[in-house]
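Note to self: keep these together.
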Amino acid sequence: MGLRFGLLGTGYWAAETQGAALAAHPGVELAGVWGRDPAKAAVLAERYGTRAYDDVDALLADVDAVAIALPPHIQGDLALRAARAGRHLLLDKPVALSPEVADRVVAECEARGLASMVFFTNRFSDSVEGFVREAVESGGWDGARVTMFASIFQPDNPFGASPWRREKGGLWDIGPHALSVVLPVLGAVEEVTSVLGPRDTAHVLTRHRGGPVGSFALTLDAAPDAQTFEVALHGEHGWVTAPGGDRSAVAAFGNAVDRLLAQVESGVGDPCGVAFGRDVVRILAAAEESARTGRTVRVP
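Structure:
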């Protein structure tokens, strides 16, 4: 029997990605499901041949690790609760909507020696991970240009009914994916400037330590014909565009499980652990503050 996982969440992502990957993974056991709607938890648990829990603390007492597929304002508090119970964490992005909550999750993981992972989907594809590694090794980058225009508020999109995505938009939903590729290459962000444009598009400039600048345009409400996803670096090597992911979301999540298991075994952290996830939250919060106040905001 492998590491015992509890799944927190019962929505589309929990059912079709995290639950599917955990149930199929040979190195772990999906030991239980908890959700805010007990009826949905029961249906999902039956689908994957496991137990539904009405009490999240009872689930935490029975597992070694949790995978969380819940809105970030709920995930942050539950991640903290799980860490305090000594459970390893496999979180969705963003870790939380508050840098203070993210800080507390990181502190608990460090104090208790817990393994952690934040699921930035494409960072668990070999094509993207190889691109990031080669870009870091080659160096010489002056900046990045990122355009991520999604159009999720269409009748057939499973994410369009998500209230937190309506409220927080592309900055918080797809911004983490963009930053997960750019940050390792350009380095730590020191200042952020942001404005909002039509269709709730966040236009963000990030100044990185040593001078590189990132330019991001992010929305979930693009016109359907304007959808595009591009991450491009520029510098001494000209313009270089990042590849797309080469794994399905389920396969990528399986890789995230592999990397969490490797952490548990070795005690060595992962580049996509909660400390990195916390850094992403700090940048997003600074961008939100900049758009609200009209000022450039320094990142702690």
